[in-house]
Amino acid sequence: MRGKYAVIGSLYLTQGLPFGLAMIAMPAILRQAGHPVESLGIFALVMLPWAFKLLWGPLVDNHGLARFGHRRSWIVPLQVATAAGFAALAHLPPESTPIVGFAAALVLINLLCATQDIATDGYAVEQLAREQHAFGNSLQIGGFCLGMLLGGSGVLIVVEHLGWAAAMAGLGIVTGLLTLPVLLRSEGVATPPPGGERAEPKRASLRALLRRPGIWVLLAVAGLFKAGSAGGEALLHPYLVDAGYGLDVVGMISGTALIGLGTVFAFLGGAVTTRLGAERTLVTFVALSALGMGALAILAAIGQTDLPQFLPALLLENISINIAYVAAFVLFMRWSSKEQAGTDFTAFQCVEAIGNIVAIGVATHLAGQLGYGAAFAFTALAGLAVALFLRTVLTESAARRLDVIPEASATGE
Fold first, then answer.
1. Exposure string for 120-133, b = 16+ CB within 10 A, e = fewer
2. Transmembrane residues, as ranges (predicted)?
3. Residue 29: inside a domain
4. How many domains does the chain have?
5. Is residue 12 pLDDT above 60, yes or no?
6. Does residue 303 fall inside a structural domain?
7. Is residue 180 a part of any domain in this protein?
8. What distance, in Å, lies between the first and last C-alpha atoms of the chain?
9. How do residues 68-95 score in pLDDT, each as one tens digit?
10. Cβ atoms of residues 127 and 4 within 8 Å
11. Which of 330, 364, 358, 323 is nearest to 345 (CA)?
């Protein structure tokens, strides 16, 4: 049991490293170097592999080395390649490397991690029983947040004191260490049905997913639940830099005050989701996240950047969206077929990433044209609208009509 959870947590932590580097560290570093805030939206491109990995999801589901482990035969080489990617970045100094070069390198590394995620998602769906979904997804969200903390805030602090090369070498070493749990644990083989041979597995396909009843509503839930928060969070670090804070202070704020506490609450989100039910938890905490973003909009509009006034709003937004994330991923896991676990779970995550890319592009454009206050306000209103939509489509009666809760009530685990 513990070995299974160690594999899941370590692999999702790895995925957060390049994502945090791209979305937290690089915008702050490059903004300090004088790049206009509008240009920082290019780092939203790192979401493209996460948005389109469903295109090769069936490949990962359908092919693998059974002797080594279907999922492990994908995960281990991808982990090694990711570590090598960080080592290569150590030779690209920020002072002389074009912003497009960094964006391209980080898209490639995120491509490796996004493909690893397909195999890891399949492993999690196959290995976890229904009653383990909430804790398993707490590990997923918490591990990813911790990876973002190390790859984003941790890199900012290390760059400030030890330099870029040391920070990238550190990420490569961490990635290597996080590969050990999956190397040390056998993947295991599914038990055949009593009195019969193991059934020939069906080949995974996107067509099978898209033919399911109510799938377009479920995909809309996936694409919208995080969009408002993603747009606002993309503005946070450039806003703090423009307010006069140094990279180390920005790193400490986003790390200790936001991602660190967000990680803790992501783990607690499993307990909240179990108690309230995934649907009710998702609606409630998406709405609370939007309220936090609304408070940020008011503070930005009046030019208030003092941390004692700013931090409570940041904490409300970040803690709420991390709990909402756990609830959303429990639903994604529940809605994924065991017959093509990696493909289905990946599809929900891809649609989420597409929604986030659009939201970040809109928010950064609004910030450049109308200012941070207007952009934060837009993301807050978008979040409240999404919460109302979720409340409508995730009621128990609606969920039963969509045939997505065959085993238990929509309001409980």
1. bbbbbbebbeeebb
2. 12-30, 42-61, 73-93, 99-119, 139-158, 164-184, 215-237, 249-270, 282-304, 310-333, 345-364, 370-390
3. yes
4. 1
5. yes
6. yes
7. yes
8. 20
9. 888 889 999 999 999 999 999 998 887 7
10. yes
11. 330
SS (H, E, C) the chain: CHHHHHHHHHHHHHHHHHHHHHHHHHHHHHHHCCCCHHHHHHHHHHHHHHHHHHHCHHHHHHCCCCCCCCCHHHHHHHHHHHHHHHHHHCCCCCCCCCHHHHHHHHHHHHHHHHHHHHHHHHHHHHHCCHHHHHHHHHHHHHHHHHHHHHHHHHHHHHHHHCCHHHHHHHHHHHHHHHCHHHHHCCCCCCCCCCCCCCCCCCCCCHHHHHCCCCHHHHHHHHHHCCHHHHHHHHHHHHHHHHCCCCHHHHHHHHHHHHHHHHHHHHHHHHHHHHHHCHHHHHHHHHHHHHHHHHHHHHHHHCCCCCHHHHHHHHHHHHHHHHHHHHHHHHHHHHCCCHHHHHHHHHHHHHHHHHHHHHHHHHHHHHHHHHCHHHHHHHHHHHHHHHHHHHHHHCCHHHHHHCCCCCCCCCCCC
Q: Is residue 77 one of the residues assigned to a domain?
A: yes
Instruction: Report which residue type is found at 349.
Output: Q
Query: 161-175: buried (b, 16+ CB within 10 Å) or exposed (e) per residue?
Result: eeebeebbbbbbebb
CA distances (Å), origin 365, targets 34, 39, 354: 17, 9, 17
Rounded CA separation 360/376 (Å)? 11
Residue identified by tokens 């992501």 is: 266
Which domain, by its residues, includes 93?
2-187+204-401
pTM for this predicted structure: 0.69
Q: How would you class 369 by CB atoms within 10 Å of its CB: exposed for 0-12, middle for 13-18, buried for 19 or more?
A: exposed
Express each pLDDT in 134-143 by its tens digit: 777 778 878 8
